[in-house]
Each structure stands twice: as structure tokens, then as C-alpha cells.
Amino acid sequence: MNPVTKTIVLLPGDGIGPEVIRTAVRLLEDCAAEFGHRFELVEFPIGGAAIEMCGSPLPPETLVACRAADAILLGATGGPRWDSLPLGQRPESGLLALRKELELYVNLRPIHLREPLRGISPLKSARTRKIDLEIVRELAGGIYFGAHRLERENGAERALDIETYSTGEIERVARFAFARAESRSQRLTSVDKANVLASSALWRKTVASLAAGYPGVAVEHMYVDNAAMQLVLAPEQFDVILTSNLFGDILSDGAAGLVGSIGLVPSMSCGLGPPLFEPIHGSAPLLAGKDRACPIGAVLCASLMLRETFGLATEAEWIEASLDRVLGSGYRTADIAEPGSTVVGCSDLTEMIRAEMRASLEQIERYGWGV
Q: Which of 65, 90, 75, 108 is nearest to 273 (CA)?
């Protein structure tokens, strides 16, 4: 195994962000020490923390560092402290600006029901179902980046949000999704609302046209309302879901509920700039500083980064297998606790994962790093 040298920018952000990022950092440091890698971990502010420190949710120094990084790890942004600010000046606008400046147009969210956590899925038949899918969300276009306007007409307010997509914007994210499907079960579901939206009609037309170049991938087109229902009724039918910015945001949060909690799901945003990894949960300000945050989303962001960006699959598997053994022993943070489980804090769960990683080394060193 060849050691690698990588620069990772840490953006702890707000609320529980710093706590879950600390967990990911500990595991990355353990991987570096065990495998001889050199991870240069440098921290910069974003979001509300950056507003307090620098007066801007995305300071120039943060953007410069992110541009030069090999990968970026974000905790969370936002909180009620800054809700009174104008929309473009709130903490979340720092993340949107970062995605735009780095030209990150794809968001990948793996939705995987981990074996030890089957009991917390809200689906009654989850114990016999396989939930293992990926949602590929377009990230740089659509209604979030269209024109937004608030008008007053005849004494009443009128709001306008515009959804726009070009063929090129759809093609580049669709190619990513087709490639993911080729590497998995060769099934792709493209989700839209082509029966009523012009942007969705173009989306469907473009994806259907591209499908001819991927003859091994079975493509299905599905309206977003039906997709939401099907995720609940039969999630095992899905492998890779491709959809727009707005629909992907909604569906991926709903899909996170299938595996037990939004705190369990990592994400990767990629495109032309360095990839950005972040758990999909919010900043949870009521939990901040109480050692009650669930760090699993951030843990899986670390393993996703190692596997997808650095090509370090063995290290990623080491982290994930250790996490599953800790969960299999009944340890949980409060948000995912089950009857009979042992509730621990964020820091204790972190140390348990690290201890399990160390404990596994004796067997690994004896028999070698397995498949």
C-alpha cells in the first residue's frame, strides 16, 4: 500500500459541526498513522462562525484554502442567531457560494441501512429488506440558483422563484449518475415532473437521449410524487436515483429517514473543484456543546472521502467495519437509541470506534488486510 500526501480543509461551521468534525479528524489521523499517509488538516471558518469572526459567511481566506485543497470536510452551518439577517447574508449562503465558486455541480448521497441499525428503520419490514441506493442530485442549477423576487401588487405581496436548466447542466450530472449505475447494479431512475414543468420536460428528454450511450444501464423515468411514495413502499427497487436540485434535496432527506436518522447519511459534492464532504444533518444548535450529537454522518464522510477521492478503500472499510462492530455491541447516541441499547455521548462513541479500530489491528496484522 503506497502512502499518500493530501491536504484536507476542515470547515467545522456552526452548532454541532465542530463536534462531529472532531470525530472525523480523529479517525483520519488514525488511518494516517497506521498506513503511513500524511494528511495535512487545516481549519477555516464558514457560516455563522465566519460571520462572527470575519463579517462574511465565506471569507476570502476560506475560499482560497478550499481551492487549493485535495478535499474539504464540512460540519454544518446555520442557527437561529443569524435568522434575522437577509437571505444572502445568512450562514447557509456561505455554503451555497462555496459550491458555486468551486463549480460543484453533483451531490452524491448514499442511503444505506446498516445491519446493526435495522431496528430503527421506520419500515415495518426493514429487517427483510435491502436498502442500499444512491441519490445523485444536481447541485449548481435549478430553482435554488434561479431568480428570486418579492413584489408588491395591488397592496398584496407576490413572490417569484424561477427554475431553469440547460441541456449542458443536465448532461453533466446525468453522465455522473450513469457512471455510478454502471459501477453498481446498472439501474438508473431519473426523477422529474415532466408532466407539468418545462424544466423537467427538458430533463427527461436529455436523460433519455444520453441513455443510448449506456446500453448496459436500465433506465426508468418517474415523477417525483410517485418516487417519494415508492421510496416508502419499496425502496429496494432503487439503485441510483438521478434528479434535480430541489427534488434531490427533498427526496434525500426523506430517504435518510428510511435508514433511521438524517444524522447517519454522508454526502459528497463534486465537479470541477476539490470535492466537498458533509453529513446531511443541520447544525442542531440545541445540541451544541452538550456532547449529544451523533457523529456517524461525519464518520461516513471520512470513509467516503478516503474511498472516492483518495482511492483508499481498505482504510475506508477499516473505519466502517469498526463502526458496525460498535453499533452491533449496542452502543448508540440518544437520537438512534433502541430498547436495550447503551446510550453514549459523541465523544465516547468516537473513542469506542477508535478502540475497535485498534483492537482489529492484531487480527489484521496476523492475517493481512482482507477483502
A: 65
Domain membership of residue 261 (yes or no) is no
Q: In the numeric block, which cell numbers belong to residue 233?
A: 413502499
> Given this model, what pLDDT does residue 87 score?
78
For the record, the C-alpha cell of 8 comes out as 484536507
Whether 332 maps to a domain, the answer reads: yes
**pTM, entire model:** 0.93
Q: In this structure, is residue 342 part of a structural domain?
A: yes
C-alpha grid cell, residue 294: 451523533
- Count of structural domains, the chain: 1
pLDDT at site 368: 55
What CA dihedral angle connects 245, 256, 125 and 220, to 10 degrees? Answer: 20
Angle between helices 313-328 and 346-367 (to 10 degrees): 120
Angle at CA 192, nearest 5°, toward 186 and 195?
130
Length of the chain as a residue count: 371
Q: Where are the alpha helices (DSSP H) in 158-290?
A: 167-183, 198-211, 224-233, 245-258
Compute CA distances 208 → 25, 190, 221, 246, whole Å.
42, 9, 9, 20
- What is each CA distance from 342 to 69, 288, 293, in whole angstroms? 39, 21, 15
Looking at residue 216, its amino acid is: G
Query: Whole domain around residue 321: which residue ranges?
Result: 1-102+273-371
* 104 in Cβ contact with 271 (< 8 Å): yes
Residues 6+ apart with CB under 8 A from 190: 174, 177, 203, 204, 207, 219, 220, 221, 222, 241, 242, 243
**What's the pLDDT at 1?**
63
- Helices 60-68 and 91-101, interaxial angle, to 10°? 40
Tell me if 179 is assigned to some domain.
Answer: no
Q: Which CATH number do you get for residue 314? A: 3.40.718.10
Q: Which residues are catalytic?
A: 144, 193, 225, 249, 253
Q: Which residue has the cell 462555496?
A: 98
Q: Which residue stretches of the chain have pLDDT < 50?
A: 371
